[in-house]
Design brief:
Radius of gyration: 57 Å
Distance between the termini: 157 Å
CATH class of one domain: Mainly Beta
Structural class: alpha+beta
Largest sheet: 6 strands, antiparallel, barrel
Length: 516
Amino acid sequence: MNEQQPSPEQPPATPVSGVDDGQGRRIGPRPLDRPAVDPSLAAEFGRPQGVDSAFAPRATTPATNGSIALAPPPPEALSMAFGRPDSAGDVVLQRAPGSLPYGSEPAVEPVFWQDSADRDPWRDPGAGAILGPPAGESEKDGDDEGKPAGSPGPLLSVPELLFGRRVKPVALATLAGVALLIGVGGGVAGWAIAQSGNPLTSSVTLSQVEPGKEQVPGSVADIVKRAQAAVVQIEVQVGNGGGLGSGVMIDSGGYILTNNHVVSAAASDPSATLRVVFADGTKTDAKIVGRDPKTDLAVIKVSVTNPTVIQLGKSSSLSVGDQVIAIGSPLGLSSSVTSGIVSAVNRPLQAAGEGGDPPVTYDAIQTDAAINHGNSGGALLDSTGALVGINSAILSPSDTGSIGIGFAIPIDFARRIAEGLIRDGQVKHADIGLNARSVSAVSTDGAQVQNVKQGGAAAKAGIAEGDVITKFAGRPIRTADELNVAIIERAIGETVPVEIVRQGRQMVLQVTTQSD
């Protein structure tokens, strides 16, 4: 039987991949079964017609006038280092010496490394790197000839060290810092040794303190610093007795607003002495300009130049919980400061007058800032430092002192009284000519009329005894004090509606106020 010969169009059989051929050479893989190529894909991605290799054909230089333009020959050193060997011929790619031309290699690839490749340090990634001396000897300075290796260099002088740029600035700065630290450490150690035998400091531990802080704008300290000079202490001397109170400078002409009960003793006795003491200790005599017993307000005057005047605020803008500051002279302690909050507003207050004066009536600001005897007539300031009230009274059991319930006259009301006293020496208030008492029933609370003055405003409006007033000028009335405050705050000659309950029937009457 005849032996079949392989077709010349088929490549020779290739040994199985990974099988040694006995000569230490790597064997190529088996040919793959390549399926037929889609003609459309071949047209799209195949080589152009006439190109049978991945490398472009070598271009030939056309002749010019029978001669070829050649580039100048390269330097001999470069030709020896990078040129092709003489045996390479016209091979396009650089081949190792003794290798076959491209395209004539055997089916089995040649060996890439020798048998001793595993011992070659250049191919062993774990081999240590050994650095040798430089290829050429470095030039030696004339000063260094004959000196053994590792000998120290020349010494530097101070000018060379500082100005010769022989040392880096960072090194100089580091050296200076180390010297400074050593000096400071030595000084501290010497001081500690010297103080160790001092009996005044060796047996005590001093508390740590923080550096002084600036006063924050709007703080209590800042407000007091600006307003304290406008609050004065008032001294009244009557015979062998006397009293103390406070006042507030409200006008640059020397006018001071205070309480009537502070100066009432001086007003009734011509021999009494009235004196004002400023925050800096300056004392000067004062005289009474006018008094208003019904509102417990008075104005006195001193002859001074360029006094510190308080800035007037608006008590109507106060709300419960707002911060307030009281300045005065409680129990004779001048320029004392206390702080707190607004406990209530529009608190009707009626108290007995001084020395036969009529009852005091006003709508008070209640505060928990500590107020004691001597604070009367002093300032109640808001958080901006503006005057919002004149401290006037306290509520305490058996008159023992402050328990956090103090009252001040609102500045909106006190300002109108002070202007009238400065202008006329006295003020008049609205009145309707009746007396009332507080009543409380299941159906209604209010002020019951006890008597009506003949020819008065209430009588002209038709108010009779027994009527219960529940609202005056739109303000609810629950007690007789609220009625008295509502009346005194109205202007003279003003007509206001008054709601009453008469025999179970509600009525609204128009009342025109008169002067008291």
